[in-house]
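Fig. S4 source data, part A: sequence.
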Amino acid sequence: MSLEPINPDTALELYLADRENNVTEATIYSHRSRLGHFVRWCDEQGISNLNNLTGRQLHEYRLWRRDEGDLSPAAEKTQMDTLRVFIRWVESIDGASEDLHVKVRSPNLTGGDNVRDVMLEEDRAEELLEYLRRYEYATRPHAVLTLMWHTMMRVGAIRALDIEDYNSEEQSIQVVNRPESGTRIKNGLDGERFVALSDEVCMVLDDWIDQRRPEKTTSHGREPLVSTSHGRVHRSTLRRDCYRYTRPCISTGQCPHGRDIEDCSATERDNASKCPSSVSPHALRRGGITHALSEEWPMKAVSDRANVSEQVLEMHYDQRSEKAKMEQRRDYTDRL
């Protein structure tokens, strides 16, 4: 098949124009919104011709969208199913490799998949943070996982932070949307906020900046708070940090699954996610949120801090049992 070059923006506009007479206006709006994320990702990745799009890149987009969008399995399935339809259409106009659409993967949902329940439990979080405090103090993983747990930030927000966003004296950090210089955050301007920090978190950040942080400046003249020797940290690096250090064998030296640690494939570079007990940044964020609620933080305070609506918070993040919620409400019965 002879392919004709086409960029993602043009492909999206042609696709929507083709469907206008066959679907409702609401469907057009939904598809434009969902596929707009794919076009944005292509732009960030430097993909200017869909002729060259590969199955591996489609999988990388799926992981990026899952983290960047903080998606439930049901939402992820909707996004990826729409992308599959779009890619199949692009194939039909000789814009992408034949049968590329079959490589677009999406979750197989079960009855309970509309609500996720995987999270990092409080005791495991404290265990891994204590390990990092003792053995890898003020390293990038220590700074990143401390921020993830205590601030409940998404990966995209942590990646977007600059040195100037952190105020050690006021013990706060500001999340700012800067799409023009490469760091768009979830919810755009509505995702901007100030987040208060504890003494412990500030101590780790201060020592990370003073002792460990690679001094890097981006092409836009910005100084990222979380940097590597190559510049601003990538989302994939932040995900790997999370998967790696949430493996129980890192902090305990033991495997709860009876594996020989020396021979376990999950100990190899980039394979930490294969450990049954390692968790994604989503699960760590969910654990931090549940911990805050269990400590009787008001729902509104957690909602503002984590930048998620109270409705979504209750449906997708609050993992307290109904009995635990009842016991917390008990404190208010004397006031009736």
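Fig. S4 source data, part B ends here. The chain has two domains: 8-103, 122-283.
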